[in-house]
Structure formats: C-alpha cells, structure tokens
Amino acid sequence: MGLRPVSETEFDRFFEEFRYTAFRLETLQVYDVGYEKEAFRRFMVDGEVIAPASRKEWTRLLGSGRQFRRVHVVVEPLTDYLRFECVCAYRSNVKAGEDVNILPVDEGKWPQGIPRFDYWLFDSHQLVRMNYTPDGTMLTPELVTDPEQIVQANAIRDRALHLAIPFTEYEKRFDADMRPL
Question: Domain DUF6879, which positions (predicted)?
C-alpha cells in the first residue's frame, strides 16, 4: 500500500522543507491534542480565549511566505472542541495568513468524494496520512508513497476546496463564541 511510519522529527521537517504549498484535510470533530488541553479547559470553564502553547511556532511557519491551506469538514451543530478550534486557532491562523476553509455538513450527510481521514499534502507530491484513535488522539503519521494515492489526495484537495467556504464567511453565521446566531 506504500505506507511508512513518520517520526515526530521527520514530520516537523516536512513543515520546514516544503517549498510552495501545504494542504491539510481535517475530518474529525474532536482532536485530543496535549498542548491544547489547558487552553481548551479555560475556554470551556471561563470562556477565555488563549492561544494553545504551539501558537508562536505555527505563526512563524505561516509567515514564511509559503501557502498554507486547510479544509475542515465540520458536522453541525459544532462540537465544543470545534467551537474552541474556531475561536482560539482558526481566527488567528487566518490573520497570520493561513487559508482556512470550512465544509459544513449536517449529521449523516458526509460530502461525496471526501474521505473520513485526515492528511497533509506538501507541494502536491508528499502525502502524510494522519492517524487518530476514535477519541481524536494522534497515532503515528504515515508517509504515503503510492503515486495513485497521492494523485487521489490532490483530487480530494481540489474537491474539498471547491465545496468549502472561507472561514471568514463561515464564522459570520455565529456569535463570538461560535454559537449559531
């Protein structure tokens, strides 16, 4: 199948070494990311909007002059985690230069042609499949070397971008805490 586990160091290198474009497809409604735990807790308990611990490094990458694009397929109504992600991450990501897009769907109506797994696609030819447990805990990412899967990931990217709307348009449907108006 053309898969090989990617170490954390190698995964980080993809972000430093790609030349032109990085695309992220996100499909989970909850991610259990260690560096976000305190920010998420404070958002839920106190309504505080604080950046996760990794914000400074991500902002540095976004300011590198390369294109970062993302589509997140979100099932409505939004989970508490997605509200947190929109308020505490996506708003600042967009301000820092990331092209964040949302593909909203109703429960049970997943968009045709869009898989239910996450990946990063670097410069349209390096594909890293992101693997998660059902609760959103990250497992080892895998480098996909099969050319057919890489071509398919490019087609999925194009379809997802076509179906999605810019985050700045999507958030207009919500209040400051990403609750429906």
Answer: 10-171
